[in-house]
Q: What sequence folds into this?
Protein backbone atom coordinates (compact mmCIF):
# COMPACT_ATOMS: atom_id res chain seq x y z
CA UNK A 1 0.00 0.00 0.00
CA UNK A 2 1.47 3.35 -0.97
CA UNK A 3 1.10 6.50 1.06
CA UNK A 4 0.19 9.78 -0.54
CA UNK A 5 2.73 12.39 0.40
CA UNK A 6 1.36 15.65 1.64
CA UNK A 7 2.21 18.76 -0.27
CA UNK A 8 4.11 21.58 1.42
CA UNK A 9 0.88 23.61 1.48
CA UNK A 10 -0.92 20.78 3.29
CA UNK A 11 1.91 20.46 5.81
CA UNK A 12 1.87 24.21 6.38
CA UNK A 13 -1.92 24.30 6.93
CA UNK A 14 -1.70 21.37 9.38
CA UNK A 15 1.01 23.17 11.37
CA UNK A 16 -0.99 26.40 11.30
CA UNK A 17 -4.05 24.55 12.67
CA UNK A 18 -1.86 23.14 15.43
CA UNK A 19 -0.55 26.63 16.27
CA UNK A 20 -4.10 28.04 16.30
CA UNK A 21 -5.17 25.29 18.68
CA UNK A 22 -2.26 26.01 21.03
CA UNK A 23 -3.00 29.77 20.91
CA UNK A 24 -6.61 29.03 21.87
CA UNK A 25 -5.44 26.96 24.85
CA UNK A 26 -3.12 29.74 26.00
CA UNK A 27 -5.92 32.28 25.66
CA UNK A 28 -8.31 30.03 27.61
CA UNK A 29 -5.78 29.66 30.41
CA UNK A 30 -5.28 33.42 30.54
CA UNK A 31 -9.04 33.98 30.55
CA UNK A 32 -9.45 31.77 33.61
CA UNK A 33 -6.99 33.92 35.53
CA UNK A 34 -8.45 37.29 34.54
CA UNK A 35 -11.90 38.06 36.05
CA UNK A 36 -12.84 40.19 33.04
CA UNK A 37 -12.88 37.11 30.82
CA UNK A 38 -14.75 34.84 33.27
CA UNK A 39 -18.04 34.96 31.29
CA UNK A 40 -16.22 33.68 28.21
CA UNK A 41 -14.41 31.01 30.24
CA UNK A 42 -17.70 29.85 31.79
CA UNK A 43 -19.38 29.78 28.39
CA UNK A 44 -16.52 27.70 26.99
CA UNK A 45 -16.74 25.27 29.92
CA UNK A 46 -20.50 24.89 29.43
CA UNK A 47 -20.04 24.25 25.72
CA UNK A 48 -17.39 21.64 26.49
CA UNK A 49 -19.82 19.86 28.84
CA UNK A 50 -22.52 19.94 26.16
CA UNK A 51 -20.10 18.55 23.61
CA UNK A 52 -19.04 15.75 25.95
CA UNK A 53 -22.67 14.84 26.59
CA UNK A 54 -23.42 14.76 22.88
CA UNK A 55 -20.35 12.63 22.17
CA UNK A 56 -21.35 10.24 24.95
CA UNK A 57 -24.83 9.87 23.44
CA UNK A 58 -23.49 9.35 19.94
CA UNK A 59 -20.66 7.10 21.08
CA UNK A 60 -20.58 3.34 20.90
CA UNK A 61 -20.69 2.64 24.65
CA UNK A 62 -23.15 1.48 27.30
CA UNK A 63 -24.57 4.98 27.66
CA UNK A 64 -24.76 5.65 23.92
CA UNK A 65 -28.08 6.00 22.18
CA UNK A 66 -27.69 2.79 20.17
CA UNK A 67 -27.02 0.66 23.24
CA UNK A 68 -29.86 2.28 25.16
CA UNK A 69 -32.28 1.73 22.26
CA UNK A 70 -31.23 -1.93 22.04
CA UNK A 71 -31.76 -2.36 25.78
CA UNK A 72 -35.18 -0.73 25.65
CA UNK A 73 -36.23 -2.90 22.72
CA UNK A 74 -35.44 -5.95 24.86
CA UNK A 75 -37.56 -4.45 27.65
CA UNK A 76 -40.37 -3.78 25.19
CA UNK A 77 -40.30 -7.43 24.07
CA UNK A 78 -40.49 -8.57 27.70
CA UNK A 79 -43.42 -6.24 28.33
CA UNK A 80 -45.19 -7.56 25.22
CA UNK A 81 -44.66 -11.12 26.48
CA UNK A 82 -46.10 -10.13 29.86
CA UNK A 83 -49.04 -8.49 28.10
CA UNK A 84 -49.74 -11.66 26.11
CA UNK A 85 -49.50 -13.80 29.24
CA UNK A 86 -51.77 -11.41 31.13
CA UNK A 87 -54.39 -11.71 28.40
CA UNK A 88 -54.40 -15.49 28.76
CA UNK A 89 -54.51 -15.28 32.55
CA UNK A 90 -57.38 -12.81 32.44
CA UNK A 91 -59.34 -15.03 30.10
CA UNK A 92 -58.77 -18.05 32.34
CA UNK A 93 -59.69 -16.12 35.48
CA UNK A 94 -62.92 -14.89 33.91
CA UNK A 95 -63.87 -18.43 32.93
CA UNK A 96 -63.10 -19.77 36.40
CA UNK A 97 -65.07 -16.98 38.08
CA UNK A 98 -68.05 -17.79 35.86
CA UNK A 99 -67.77 -21.50 36.70
CA UNK A 100 -67.46 -20.77 40.42
CA UNK A 101 -70.60 -18.62 40.27
CA UNK A 102 -72.43 -21.44 38.50
CA UNK A 103 -71.19 -23.88 41.15
CA UNK A 104 -72.35 -21.54 43.92
CA UNK A 105 -75.76 -21.19 42.31
CA UNK A 106 -76.08 -24.98 42.01
CA UNK A 107 -75.25 -25.40 45.73
CA UNK A 108 -77.70 -22.69 46.76
CA UNK A 109 -80.50 -24.38 44.78
CA UNK A 110 -80.06 -27.68 46.61
CA UNK A 111 -82.64 -28.39 49.30
CA UNK A 112 -80.05 -29.98 51.55
CA UNK A 113 -77.20 -27.65 52.46
CA UNK A 114 -73.79 -29.14 51.48
CA UNK A 115 -70.99 -29.56 53.98
CA UNK A 116 -67.91 -27.39 53.96
CA UNK A 117 -65.84 -30.38 52.89
CA UNK A 118 -68.13 -31.03 49.90
CA UNK A 119 -67.92 -27.38 48.79
CA UNK A 120 -64.15 -27.30 49.27
CA UNK A 121 -63.72 -30.54 47.30
CA UNK A 122 -65.77 -29.21 44.36
CA UNK A 123 -63.86 -25.89 44.37
CA UNK A 124 -60.52 -27.68 44.54
CA UNK A 125 -61.52 -30.01 41.71
CA UNK A 126 -62.65 -27.04 39.61
CA UNK A 127 -59.46 -25.05 40.21
CA UNK A 128 -57.10 -27.99 39.63
CA UNK A 129 -58.59 -29.24 36.36
CA UNK A 130 -57.68 -28.39 32.81
CA UNK A 131 -60.07 -25.95 31.08
CA UNK A 132 -61.91 -28.61 29.06
CA UNK A 133 -62.37 -30.81 32.15
CA UNK A 134 -63.60 -27.86 34.22
CA UNK A 135 -66.39 -27.16 31.75
CA UNK A 136 -67.76 -30.70 31.97
CA UNK A 137 -67.47 -30.79 35.78
CA UNK A 138 -69.27 -27.49 36.25
CA UNK A 139 -72.10 -28.75 34.09
CA UNK A 140 -72.35 -31.95 36.19
CA UNK A 141 -72.46 -30.06 39.52
A:
Amino acid sequence: MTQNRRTPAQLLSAKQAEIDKLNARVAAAAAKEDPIFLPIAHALDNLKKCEMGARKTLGNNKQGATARIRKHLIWIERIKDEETAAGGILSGVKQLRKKLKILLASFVKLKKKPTLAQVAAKVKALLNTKPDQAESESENA
